[in-house]
Amino acid sequence: MTRPAPAGTGRLARLGFVQPDRTADLLGPDGLGWWNPQASAPDGPEGEALILALAHAADPDLAVLTLHRLNAAQKDPSALALAVRTDAGFRDRLFGVLGASASLGDHLCAFPDEWRALVSGVWEPSQPSPELLREILLDAVGAPTDAGETWGSGGVRARGSDPDVVADLRLVYRRCLLRTVARDLSESGPAGRSDVAMISTELADLAEATVRAALAVAAAGLPADAPAVRLGVIGMGKCGGRELNYVSDVDVVFVAEPGAPGADFPDGENPGPALRTATTLASSMMRICQEVAWQVDAALRPEGKDGPLVRTLASHAAYYKQWARTWEFQALIKARPIAGDLDLGMAWMGEISPLVWGTTTGASRRDGAAGREGAVAEIRAMRQRVEQSLPAKEAAREIKLGPGGLRDIEFAVQLLQLVHGRGDATLRSGNTLDALRALIDGGYVGRLDGEALDSSYRFLRTVEHRLQLQRLRRTHSLPTDRDELRWLAATLGHRGSGDPVEGFSAEWARHAREVRRLHEKLFYRPLLEAVATVSNEDLRMVPSSAQARLEALGFTDPSGALRHVQALTQGVSRRAHIQRALLPAMLGLFADAPDPDAGLLAYRQVSDRLGATPWFLRLVRDEGLVAERLPTLLGTSLYVAELLTHDPEGLQLLADDAELRPRSREVLHGALRAAAARHTAPEVSVVAARALRRRELLRTAFADLLGLDDVSTVGRALTDVSDAVLVAALSVAERVVAEQRQGDLPMRMAIIGMGRLGGAEMSYSSDADVMFVHEPLEGASEHDATVAARAVAEELRRLLSAPAPDPPLGIDANLRPEGRQGPLVRSLGSYAEYYRRWSKPWEWQALLRARPVAGDEDLGRRFIELIDPLRYPAEGLDTAAITEIRRIKARVDVERLPRGADPATHTKLGRGGLADVEWTVQLLQLRSGASVPGLRTTQTIAALGAARDAGLVTAVDHDALVAAWEMAAEVRNALMLVRGRPSDQLPRHGKELLGVARAIGQPADAETGEFLDEYLRTMRHGRQAVERVFYA
């Protein structure tokens, strides 16, 4: 716990000095002379300015203590004192370094004159060029700066290899590092942030210059008769990517060739001595670098630490072609020659780069590292292993390896590079930020996502730099000590009001969350695996080869498909860029669909409708489920394709399975009523409601085709939305007629659902079977009420049949008494009279599906009370009625089956089809509904379960009837989805049969013949059960 400051030093405490009493001593007359202890104040205006400058350091206490030590180390303190007082720029740079880095402070105290490197005039504020840094460090070891490179055993050499030369190199390296740190801190500004990319590049250039100087020193230590050998040093990792940290291993790979540059190595001569010289040279360079600055790590070489330190170009090529693993190719993204024989280094790059990125030219074509089997999964698994290896307590503080850390960004970027860089050379940068910018510009990463990653990467790298700078030690873990966290927060600009530690912690947590979210979004894109399987040649989609690929993929009209592809990808727009990234993989997904040509055409149509909409291609690119699902859906279902062309925004439903779940009746009714009420024009009101129905049809079709909903759920969803449309349309129709009559309506009215609507078993092609019932209000005449009710019913039919860009909801009232010959609407009393006097068994049967769906609820309930005794007769059916129903059924089987239809595969009227099962169930309901409450339902499957439970059918017959009904209903729905138009006839072969099989969930590798056999077998068993139950 920090002890309270003495009263006289309270001002120092307020300025941020944690140990104000010690600071007062260091600043007082016996120290720096800037503090007047008698006045408990700075010693004049100059002292105040100097103390305020110290207070701006990240750690003011460290800065003042180290400045005191540095002053004491001077032979002539007056020079330093004068510079501090008169050179404000120098003062800020020096104090910034002293407050941020204890290690550099120690270095300045050990070398008391090195502070002069920061004095204005000597100090250079701009970033030094790589050439200038090379000159400075080569000059430090006495190597000529204008005589080329140290190409190995020859070329430029240092003045010697003794420890004094290495010490000089270390001192000059530290001087350059000091300037970099001062530039970093002085350019940070009030937010504590400099251009971390610029600083990282400068550090990499400094490392490269150091390696070159160290190689010159190592070459100077070779014996005069050493065999001639060329040695190339390949920078890897952050050095190769020009994004180095303050303290980091410099990763390298060595390549060597016997002989001097331009000279042929004699055939048959043993290269061993030359390679041993190269190994000595490389080892010496690594040792010198470690003494000067940091460790040089060659562990990324072939076979790692178990392999030879130095290999020939041919040996490298052989290893990478035959033995290298995917992570090794990932590491090669950052490779670049940095020292030694640069021509040899470039030759190495020319040999190795095609193995990383692939090539479509030459005799040997390769698909690149990402095209290797399981490459994407291997990279993902490696990232997971790194995370899992971290102890939980450490992971929470890890800014590099933990979740939401730098590795999340780097792995995501590198995976996207490996996959997409095969076809796009602009992505092949070894620098993370440059690669990320190229991915954004090329449309592979969304702008907002990319900018967020860029911002978080810069933040995390700045944090890493500040942590390492403090003691010049390699670290990437946040400290646990609160004082150290306060120092870190201060270096990042968290000063002033509020707790700096809490401010920094909140910022770090925000970046970590965002990085993790985007990492999971980009790194685990399912589309990446699909793109990785596409050859390099196919990625480029050159017309001469693209058409052949389309034909090989199974497109019936490859030239037409190519035209679609070209229309989608031509030009330099961002939209075309994204399409070029998406289509190579999506074409393979289209090819797996039953009708690739139709799917690609539909995709083009949807793209044309939405191409200028920012979210569309972003959704397809970034949401893996959408990219996976869309080709399958469009290549399977003309119904979906047609819906999407009219409602392309519905595509967003595919991104989340939760959005594909059916919406509740309450939500649907509320949404459609609200949509209709927002408009005054009746036609517009109903069109708005119908548009919402179109979205629900799309939602249901998506879920159906993706296997998320069973046939009963589909039927219920289609029924619920139809109910909601009828409710909304009835309210609009009633309003129209009331306005026409210029007064309130004289009746209450209800719509009774019949058939599949009443049974909640609608298909995509079902009309709404209905009956209209009304009841005159008190004081109104029957005639006037009937006229008004008929006007409402006719207006409702008109509104729902008006042209609109959505599938129609036909209104069929033919099941009303007397059919088409009878009145469209009746009063409740009229229905009662008719059913009492004239109804027949087949009408009772039709009433089994009746339920109120819209209008006056009380009237609907009383209508059901009226018909229940008819459809569930207390004494059941007599023999004559049963005979009549069977006779009608036999006539229907013969007369209503279309000419030429195959009764074995007709889903509605075929043997074992929907009609067979439904007539069987309905006969059971008519016979036993009065005595078996469970039979009093409008739903076929529920009634069958009740019949089984009551012992009216055996379990075997029950299962056969359920299976037949569900299979026929599924296939009938699938026929509509595949063809885009109503059909009851299952084809026995061809593309449509394949589409139907896929639509109901048959695996892609299964034969359609197996599906057809299963259908026929199920229908046959269903028919046998019908004969046992219906004709019993």
From TrEMBL:
Recorded superkingdom: Bacteria
Recorded hits in CDD domains, A to Z, give: NT_GlnE_GlnD_like (cd05401)
Does this entry carry the keyword Metal-binding?
no
Record key words, sorted: ATP-binding, Magnesium, Multifunctional enzyme, Nucleotide-binding, Nucleotidyltransferase, Transferase
Q: Which residues form the signal peptide?
A: none
Q: Give start and end of each Glutamate-ammonia ligase adenylyltransferase repeated domain.
A: 162-346, 628-863
Tell me which residues make up the PII-uridylyltransferase/Glutamine-synthetase adenylyltransferase domain.
380-523, 906-1029
Q: Which InterPro entries match?
A: GlnE, GlnE_rpt_dom, NT_sf, PII_UdlTrfase/GS_AdlTrfase
Q: Which Pfam families does the record cross-reference, listed alphabetically? A: GlnD_UR_UTase, GlnE
Q: Which GO terms describe its molecular function?
A: [glutamate-ammonia-ligase] adenylyltransferase activity; [glutamine synthetase]-adenylyl-L-tyrosine phosphorylase activity; ATP binding
What Enzyme Commission number does this protein have?
2.7.7.42, 2.7.7.89
This protein's species is Cryptosporangium phraense
Gene3D superfamilies assigned: Beta Polymerase, domain 2, Nucleotidyltransferases domain 2
User: GO cellular component annotations, sorted alphabetically?
Assistant: cytosol
Task: Please give the biological process terms from Gene Ontology that the record holds.
Answer: regulation of glutamine family amino acid metabolic process
Enzyme class per UniProt: transferase
Which protein, by its recorded name, is this? Answer: Bifunctional [glutamine synthetase] adenylyltransferase/[glutamine synthetase]-adenylyl-L-tyrosine phosphorylase
